[in-house]
Amino acid sequence: MPAHNTDAIQTQLCGEIQTLLSLPPNSVLPETSLQSLGLDSLRFVSLLIIIEQKFGVSLIKVGLRQQDMQSAATLAAAISAGQTA
Amino acid sequence: MSFSIPYSRRRRYLTGIDWLMGGMHHSALRFTGVGALSQAILDLDGSLPETPLRSALDQISARLPILHGRVARDWLNLAPYWKLPRRAGGNPISLRVVDLPSDAAAEAQRLLADHVNQPLAPPSDHLSFLLIRLGNQRSRLGMVFDHRLFDAIGAESFLRLIDQTWQGNLDQIAPKVKLTEPAHLDHWSRRFRSGKLLNAGLLKLAEREVCALKMPAAGSSPRVRFCHASLTIEQTERFRQRAAAECGMPILLPSAAARAVLSLQHAIPIMPLPGQQYLVFTSASTRAAGQEWESLFFNHLSFLPFSIDVDPPQSPTALVLKLRDQLFEQMRQGIPAALQDASALVRICPHWLGSRLMGRMFKGRLCSFYFACLRETGFPERTFLGLPAVDLIHTPTAFAPPGMNLCMTTFGDRFNLVLSYLDGVLEDSAAAAMMGHFKSLLVE
Fold first, then answer.
1. How many domains does the structure of chain B reveal?
2. Mean per-residue pLDDT for A1-27?
3. Could you tell me the pLDDT band of residue B122, with boundaries at 50, 70 and 90?
4. Is residue B5 one of the residues assigned to a domain?
5. Where are the domains of chain A?
6. Do residues B71 and B170 share a domain?
């Protein structure tokens, strides 16, 4: 799986979150709080599975921290770190 | 390849999940005589007048004939549908008002329990309201609803719709409500693949005997009883943080379900045999964010099974990780989506036959109990018809089998816990012990 830069990951992640929650385009910004979007258990898990499939990083296996799940920006940083680990 | 068959504006074809809920209704009806009903109870600070409530219900009833529909089958394509009446209106929605002294909270509780234990008048009544005023200080509004028409979040949204109607917003909201649905007679190969996946999963789950409580005899019409507890805002927040720390992400389901199983193991005197499993079916919302009016009616959820060894007893943290891994595995396999897809195929099956086949596969013990953990709410407001809303709890009738449900619902920033069980399945003392242990595990 090729490594992506963090900005590209952020943009792609925002799109994936919008699709997952059936939100209109550009409604999720990198800084938008994931908690405020009303992601329940199932959708959080779905998001992590999408990340595994799209970016080749299992955040559960590399040790996900709570602060990594704040926003698309923090998740993108965790994915980027996971790709280079 | 997919194609759409034109469908009538008076037909709301049922999804596979709606059909499964119909199966649960049918099965519960056999045991209790009331079917799969639930009650949302709104606790209000002040005396709620009858006239504006009645007026709002009449307006909604006239605008949304779906409230007076019934299940029918299209004899051309064999798909079941909710038949909307030709004219809006129909019978007025049932509303009974009882005035009690301000210190009669126990009597109010008894009346509300009676309310959800009475069948709705078939086939076109799916809602019934009971307004209890306790002096001038407090009101409790119980809304009994047919689970074939609403899921729990839809019911909360309906309470919100009553408030919005009182505020004069029905004309803006009503056009958003989705009343019709195509027959879903498409994507056949995908649905069959989903069916194959699901069938293999169910057969695997059925390999081990399910540890479940003994059901009363069918037709004995046991009442549903309830045990209720609440978490404070601080306790709820502490549990959220602990669940996030245990799972490594802000999810609640594995932590809550693990504690529910441990409380069952602790408090209920069933004698599991080695090799048996606790099988817990959890419901999960599939509602799209911000679609509360579009998805007001019918069921927007799927189910996930968790299989847990009965022996040896496990620590909460170890069990949480096992359940988290099961959740991930099922999501990777696409089980919730497969259930939605494949269940459309079984709609051809009459409910009595479906219940019998499932019962045979699981030797009459479908699961240990149902568990719901609802993080979202359809009623985010803190007022109802101008009065402050103090609490909102749900008292669902227990699905039968297994005759026991445990649900966590959200009101404001805290959780309400309700254990529903059939008379004869559990002693009241055992239910209280289970609820007490569950709460202590959540807040420890």
1. 2
2. 83
3. low
4. no
5. 6-84
6. yes
ipTM: 0.84
Is B285's CB within 8 Å of A40's CB?
yes
User: Across the interface, do A64 and B253 touch by the CB < 8 Å criterion?
Assistant: no
Residue of B246, B251, B300 best to disrupt the A interface, most CBs of A under 10 A:
B251
Asked if B288 lies within 8 A of A22 by C-beta distance, the reply is yes
Is residue B441 within 8 Å of B316, Cβ to Cβ?
yes
Query: Do B260 and B396 share a domain, yes or no?
Result: yes
Please name the residue ranges forming H helices in B206-272.
Answer: 233-247, 253-267
- State which of B184-188, B271-275, B317-321 shows the largest mean pLDDT: B317-321
pLDDT of B6: 52
- Chain A residues with CB inside 8 Å of B253's CB? 41-42
**What average pLDDT is seen over chain B?**
89
pLDDT at residue number B2: 47
Question: In A, what residues contact B, Cβ < 8 A?
Answer: 21-23, 34-35, 37-42, 44-46, 48-49, 60, 63-66, 69
Q: Which CATH superfamily is domain A6-84 in?
A: ACP-like (1.10.1200.10)
State the average pLDDT over residues B154-177. 96
Helical H segments across B117-222, by residue range: 152-166, 170-173, 188-205
Q: Is the pLDDT of residue B115 over 50?
A: yes
Using the structure block, give the residue that is written with the tokens 């992640």: A13
* Cis peptide leading into residue B401 (ω within 30°): yes
End residue of a domain, out of B124, B142, B176: B176
Whether B379 and B262 share a structural domain: yes
Which residues make beta-bridge pairs with B172?
none
CB < 8 Å to B244, chain A: 66
Residue B44 is part of which domain span? 11-176
Domain identity same for B160 and B211: no
Is B336 in contact with A42 (Cβ distance < 8 A)?
yes
Q: Three-state SS for B212?
A: coil
**What confidence score (pLDDT) does residue B245 get?**
87
Same-domain status, B123 and B223? no
**Can you give the CATH number for the domain in which B339 is found?**
3.30.559.30
Q: What is the pLDDT of residues B28-56, one digit of tens each?
A: 888 888 889 999 999 999 999 999 999 99
Q: Is A54 helix (H, G, I), strand (E, B) or coil?
A: helix
Percent of chain B with pLDDT over 90: 58
B415 and B283, same structural domain? yes
Using CA coordinates, name the residue in chain A closest to B336: A42
Please judge whether A41 and B327 are an interchain contact, meaning their C-beta atoms are less than 8 angstroms apart. Answer: yes
Alpha-carbon distance of B365 to B360, in angstroms, equals 9
Which of B176, B206, B221 finishes a domain? B176
Mean predicted confidence (pLDDT) in B177-185: 83
The separation between CA B133 and the C-alpha centre of its own chain, rounded to angstroms, equals: 27
- Give B-chain residues touching A41 at CB under 8 angstroms: 251-254, 284, 327, 373, 375
